[in-house]
Amino acid sequence: MKKIILFTLMCLTITFSYSGSKIGINEQEEITLIKLNTNKGDIIIKLFTKDAPETSNNFINYVKNGSYNGTIFHRVIKNFMIQGGGHLPDMSEISTNPPIVNESNNSISNKKGTIAMARTSDPHSATSQFFINLKDNDFLDMKNSPDGYGYCVFGEVIEGIEIVEDIGTVGTGNKAGHADVPLDDIVLENAEFIDN
Questions:
Q1: What topology does CATH give the domain 27-194?
Q2: pLDDT in tens, 139-179
């Protein structure tokens, strides 16, 4: 009887863990969870290590090295996205690793709550900066992008979407030559791995 109960509880736990997916990526795989501790609250990200391996490893390396700690969400556009991972509160840039290959051919859409890599006009220029979609932004997908690449989704928010939404409503202005910068710093105090 105890074994049956334990098995049932395990099944319920697995169901709960996987049912949070916003876009249907629910295959059984090794799960990598990252917690972004911000001064607005915690955001937990599930990485799509199987579908965007190079992009996920790139993000993991920045987390391992503590590169994101103390950075800010430096670009917030209401009803679009919040962007971080590249600047400190004084708007100086963090040190970055070489750019990575754009893995947007994984066909994962820029839906609300997904996390994707920011880049320049060069499709393969992403380094440390990422953004979290505040709504479905399908026009950023490879199939809809004028440059034929779009923006690579490599994970999704599984907890703390309300924190993302809250950040998405803050007042913004210009600072050090950048537009859409929050008037009050939104600090990513610490990025860490969660055991699961």
A1: Cyclophilin (2.40.100)
A2: 999 999 999 999 999 999 999 999 999 999 999 999 999 99
